[in-house]
Amino acid sequence: MPAQFDVVVIGTGPGGYVCAIKAAQLGLKTAVVEKLPNHGGTCVNVGCIPSKALLHATEMYAEAQHNFAKLGIEVSGVSVSLEKLMAHKAQTVEQNVKGLDFLMKKNKIEVFRGTGRIAGAGKVVVTAADGSEQTVETKNIVIATGSEVAGIPGVNVEFDEKAIVTSTGALSLEKVPGKLVVVGGGVIGLELGSVWARLGAEVTVVEYLDTILGGMDGEIAKQFQRLLTKQGFTFKLGAKVTAVQRTGNGASVTFEPVKGGKAETIEADVVLVATGRKPYTKGLGLEEAGIEVDERGRVKVDRHLRTNVPGVYAIGDVVAGPMLAHKAEEEGVAVAEIIAGQAGHVNYDVIPGVVYTSPEVAAVGKTEEELKKAGIEYNVGKFPFSANGRARSMLQTEGLVKVLADKKTDRVLGVHILGFGAGEMIHEAAVLMEFGGSSEDLARTCHAHPTMSEAVKEAALATFFKPIHS
Ligand code: FAD
Ligand code: NAI
Predict the structure, then answer these.
(1) Domain definitions of the chain by residue range
(2) For a pocket test of ligand 1, which of 9, 39, 42, 288 has the largest count of ligand atoms closer than 8 A to its C-beta?
């Protein structure tokens, strides 16, 4: 019997749904299997989208409280309705979910509701919520099952999503906690910590490393930490968390200095544990299907995103690489193209990362630390937003742009931005790097005035000569 489908994608997060749409657009007969009622995965339902709704709303609230008066706008009695804020979040998610339902229909993608299990090459068994099973036959299978909360290795944390929460609970707290302790000074900790800090919580971040945002450029991370401290954050760095426990009124966190010393316990109304995520492959039947995983449980793939079993591919959080929605999407597109016989490819050197705090942090390419470690000689150009006219007009003068370019060839190797709108500005650097551009290319490109982006041009200029405005 011929296979029913050309491609069956298991999981409809940003990796899976994008892969399915692209495959359908390329003329492949495509189906998806999703175990949850909504498409969109972590990103749309409990990740990128709801967190950005809360970040935007609370940033506006903070602006109204702290900056409006400086701009000459007099407002009084600014207050927040947590209920309405959460309604805005829910509506944003709903609109995105509806959009995905529409796209599935528009592209004639067959949707199977249930948990997908790979019963060998070309066979996916779908178990519906009522326990009924059906087998779907396909030429190709794409695993896009994403990730789940990792917890703290070696520490038993009992999440009740009320006093001890994952990011999912932290997106839906019923009231503003007086004290919020965040375990992990990574992206989730700082974004969701910002949401609740702006709403009035006293936020303490306990981080194992001696820096926040480990992996980001060290200079940028340090300046960012200073800005967050000004916003009221308290940081306990170089601190290893050894226990998270429920107490009468909330929860407590015990940690000890990584370098040795006395343990300390702090009490909180709510503890958010944000210590990373791990691949999710439960119930997929990887072992029976003979699909290999690495030492961290990630599905092993080659550079064409193929697993060791012919006709089975894997993309997104479930494979190695940064756990980012847009990385998952790029891989989804690449796999669809590869299956359709085209030259699908992901450029892992140019995947931007954005932290949607205030100000934002954005980066693409290598950090100074990475270049030093790799023994690559480079030039650095920097430009502070305090010297940018548009930034002054908006009272958004915090932060800087930093451009790293190869010393010999001037090719841009990394761009790091701390500042208002960094997450939008980073893309001119990404496009430049995709085309192998130099810092001189960037510096000689006319930028509209007055814009924050002029700081990017000036930082590029500073790598090989002198900026004009500082
Ligand atoms: P997922 O989105 O996790 O989707 C996997 C899907 O597979 C799910 O729908 C799941 O139900 C389904 N599934 C799993 N197993 C099966 C099975 N056996 N059968 C059927 N279905 C199955 N990234 C960014 O780039 N920008 C951000 O701003 C950002 N913010 C985030 C904020 C938070 C709070 C969190 C937690 C994450 C955030 N991320 C962000 C990360 C982003 O959400 C992930 O990188 C992205 O969702 C990964 O996409 P994916 O398709 O690989 O997996
Ligand atoms: P993360 O990896 O960004 O940060 C986790 C932090 O916890 C690290 O700094 C780590 O050193 C620390 N940590 C680990 N164990 C610890 C311990 N025992 N004690 C103290 N600290 C400890 O992971 P996070 O924030 O949970 O995010 C998960 C994923 O979601 C990330 O990979 C990220 O890419 C993605 N994400 C992306 C966003 C974005 O792009 N804006 C937003 C939110 C999440």
Answers:
(1) 5-148+278-339, 164-275, 353-464
(2) 42
